Amino acid sequence: MTPQVPSGSRHSFRFGLPPSLGSETARERAERLASFLQRALGKLVEVNVATSYETLAKDLLSGRADAAWAPPFVCARMEAMGVRVLTRGVRRGMSSYRSALVGRAGSGLTLEKLKGASAAWVDRDSVAGYLLPSAFLKTQGLEPSRAFVSQQFTGSYQGALEAVLEGRAQVTSVFCPPSSTGLTFTTGVEDVLGPGMGAKFELLAYTDEAPNDGVPVAMGLPAPLVTALETALLGLQSTPDGQALLRDIFNADRFEVAPRMGYRALYRVALASL
Which residue windows does the record flag with biased composition (Polar residues) (predicted)? Predict the structure, then answer.
């Protein structure tokens, strides 16, 4: 798909959110983000939750979205097509994260026992929710399409974790901080399901790290609007309302300027997952 240039005459600004933390939760918070962006940009703002990562990417490329909060692999796709990633999230002082393969606590599941198990993933384009664990399993001699008796894609981390808790799958994955932080997989689980829920899962393995999620902007978006959006996102941490948006929508402490082509290395992960 060739990227489309947004119409210069349109007075609204459209921002896309992924469904990865649950569409219902994201929609509840979209109104708060729309109000913030409307004040910052001086335009009517629409915030929409995409039904999938693929839809989010297509919305950006078609011009149906002017900017989006996008997972790393979508950012990598956008960069490869000439789309700029404006900012990326910083969590616990880090610009990268990893994935943890987890099963239900007490299940006794190990990497050696995964063959014949069932898996629940987030989305085929989700880095921590599918691509990183899939690439890792291949390095362990486990081809997911053959090793698992079934694989389901739930569309969100909440859905995938709940599938394991409820016995509809035996293994899933969740984003978590890099090893340098000293934090474990339970941090990611509790970010999604709430305090104390990490104890309901046990770790199978950690994957390699990947860059954090970012905000790509549509090609042809007027430079003053790009600058205003960048300034607004970088300044979120300076107010209590902004800090709440960072926590509740972006699961980040702050934004930083994204380095040009900073997601290129993810194509290695994407290819390994095919």
Answer: 1-10
In CATH, the number for domain 95-209 is 3.40.190.10
Query: Is the Cα torsion angle 8, 11, 16, 17 positive or negative in sign?
Result: positive
Backbone angles phi, psi at 52, to 5 degrees: -160, 170
Structure tokens at 231: 């300034």
Could you list the beta-strand ranges (E) of the chain: 12-17, 44-49, 67-68, 84-90, 96-104, 118-121, 150-153, 171-176, 201-211, 214-217, 254-257
C-alpha closest to that of 225 among 77, 84, 95: 84
Closest CA to 237 of 71, 36, 24, 97: 36
Reported as a single tens digit per residue, the pLDDT across 125-144 is: 888 999 999 989 998 999 99
Which positions of the chain have pLDDT values less than 70? 1-11, 21-26, 268-274
| Backbone phi and psi for residue 21, each to the nearest 5 degrees, phi listed first | -100, 10
Q: Please check whether residue 103 is in contact with residue 204, taking contact to mean a CB–CB distance below 8 angstroms.
A: yes
CATH 3.40.190.10-classified regions of the chain: 10-91+211-260, 95-209
Domain 10-91+211-260 belongs to what architecture?
A: 3-Layer(aba) Sandwich (3.40)
| Alpha carbon 159 to chain centroid, angstroms | 14
- Burial of residue 11 (CB within 10 Å: 0-12, 13-18, 19+) is exposed
Place of tokens 């959006």: 229
pTM, rounded to two decimals: 0.75
